[in-house]
Write a structure and sequence with these properties.
The protein is built from 14 helices and 24 strands. The protein has 430 residues and is α/β, with parallel strands linked by helices. Helix 4 runs parallel beside helix 6. It binds ligand EPZ. Ligand EPZ binds next to helix 1, helix 5, helix 6 and helix 12. The site of ligand EPZ has 23 residues, from helix 1, helix 5, helix 6 and helix 12.
Length: 430
């Protein structure tokens, strides 16, 4: 199994191109199930989760072609992919595939809307918490679907003539269930109103793409979204928005190591809450014509408290990385996780690098230390793993991060991007 070896201590200086967002690309790819025309997505990141979803969509009948042209001539990161689903050949999403990636459960929305039925495996447990699917069941039921659980699967059936527009108020904000409601309601008869919808930029990106396909969605990006159902959707061409989590991760890395890095092709507004926290910690962040410039001062990190919240709050997907940054702050900070009940697996591993962190319920108290020392570490999820990478960059000596497959799920060419900025990072294949 691959490992990443890091020799810490170097500043980061240079340019990092930000990839298309994984968490936008996944629902956009799934939206291709809604039409028999071709959906073309530009700026699709080359990630393990994307490759897995391509396989899953193939099972349902989506024909995929990658045009091979590299959008960034010198980097070759992102791809333009054409998705065509003339007919849905299978409405079942099996356990073997859904259990590997929770987002694949979201096919339930388009399958139900287009074919009137779907049999989708329950996603099962997850390293960062239990992550149930009750909100999907309630939401789709509000559109007239019958939802039955049988043998670890959800059998969803639309009424004769298809789903019917309805009103649903989420008791809790869910990104995935909002995506599914947008897709399902786009092809329902009549108008759907979703209250307490997720406001994440990835939801807006999906709504924009669906509208380009002929959907009638208004209010995406606010808590109330209205969808007037249409009879059918057509193809479209859409560019995946930049990855705000990758942006925040590299900004935190620079704040921690010191240096001067331009994050190219990204947008401050996608993650202003998180970047304001990095500013308060002492980094200078300026908006430039090509993206963002981050200047970090390494040893002069100020302690900052953060609480994760649905967008526009501080994102849970940057919580581990921010905690990594705070391990070197000049004082005590607190990081509170409110989205997932078990998203602190990085704490023990950061401690192996010399961090001083104590947990009390959903809050971590971090007492900054003047230096971290490299060590072998591993993590059990994507964002936790990358927090160890950025801590390793700022640590003295050698850190090896194992279970690199977690990083490959969400960070495109991580070691190459960091190496180009002066870091000593290499992949070791055993
Ligand atoms: C999305 O997951 C992201 N994944 C996650 O990123 C991200 O952490 C999360 O949103 C929150 O921002 C993708 O976009 C692919 P939720 P999602 O439904 O949609 C509870 C990463 O590292 N809930 O918004 O699955 C749930 O348990 C990943 O890239 C229910 O209770 O998250 C959680 O506590 C990790 N019932 C909360 O809602 C439900 O039916 C928010 O989850 C659904 C969710």
């Amino acid at each position: 199994m691959d490992r990443i070896r890091i020799v810490g201590g170097n500043e980061l200086n240079g340019v990092i191109p930000i990839s298309g967002a994984k968490n936008a690309a996944l629902p956009l790819m799934i939206a291709s199930l809604l039409t028999s025309d071709t959906l073309t997505l530009e700026n699709v990141p080359h990630l393990a989760d994307v490759e897995l979803l391509l396989r899953i969509l193939g099972n349902h009948g989506v024909d995929v072609s990658v045009n091979g042209r590299r959008e960034r001539q010198d980097e070759g990161y992102s791809r333009t992919i054409h998705f065509t689903c003339r007919t849905i050949v299978d409405t079942t999403a099996p356990y073997e595939l859904v259990s590997k990636m929770r987002a694949s459960f979201w096919v339930i929305g388009p399958l139900l809307a287009r074919e009137g039925r779907a049999r989708v495996s329950l996603p099962g447990g997850c390293a960062i918490g239990t992550r149930p699917v009750d909100l999907f069941i309630e939401g789709l039921t509000a559109l007239g679907a019958t939802m039955e659980i049988d043998g670890g699967y959800i059998n969803a059936t639309a009424p004769k003539g298809g789903l019917i527009g309805g009103t649903y108020t989420f008791p809790k904000v869910s990104v995935g269930a909002t995506h599914v409601m947008l897709m399902a309601a786009s092809l329902a008869r009549g108008t759907t109103v979703i209250n307490n919808a997720a406001r994440e930029p990835e939801v807006v990106d999906l709504a924009n793409c669906l509208n380009a396909m002929g959907a009638k969605i208004s209010g995406a990006g606010t808590s109330t979204i209205t969808i007037e159902g249409v009879h059918s959707l057509s193809g479209a061409r859409h560019r995946v928005l930049p990855d705000r989590i990758e942006t925040g991760t590299y900004a935190m890395a620079v704040a921690m190591t010191g240096g001067d890095v331009t994050l190219e092709g990204t947008d401050f507004a996608l993650l202003d809450t998180a970047l304001e926290a990095v500013r308060r910690a002492g980094a200078e962040i300026t908006v430039t014509p090509s993206g963002l410039r981050v200047v970090g001062h390494g040893n002069a990190i100020r302690p900052v408290d953060v609480v994760t919240e649905p967008y526009p709050g501080f994102p849970t997907d940057l919580q581990a990385q921010f905690m990594g940054l705070m391990t070197r702050a000049n004082g005590v900070s607190h990081v509170t996780e409110t989205i997932f009940e078990n998203r602190f697996m990085h704490v023990q591993e950061l401690a192996r690098l010399g961090a001083r962190i104590t947990l009390s319920g959903q809050t971590a108290r971090i007492e900054g230390v003047s230096r971290l020392r490299g060590a072998p570490v591993m993590a059990t999820d994507l964002r936790a793993s990358v927090s160890l990478v950025i801590a390793g960059l700022a640590a003295e000596g050698e850190t090896t991060v194992s279970r690199v497959y977690h990083l490959d799920r969400g960070f495109e060419r991580l070691e190459e991007k960091l190496t180009r900025c002066g870091a000593v990072v290499e992949r070791i294949t055993d």
